[in-house]
Amino acid sequence: MKIVALISQKGGAGKTTLAVHLAARAAADGRATAVIDLDPQATAASWGDRRQAEAPEVVSGQAVRLPALIKAAEDNGAEFLVLDTAPNADQTASLAARAADVVLIPCRPATFDLEAIATTLMLAKAAAKPSYVVLNAVPPRSPIGKEATEGLAQQGVQVAPLC
Question: What is the pTM of this model?
Answer without folding.
Answer: 0.94
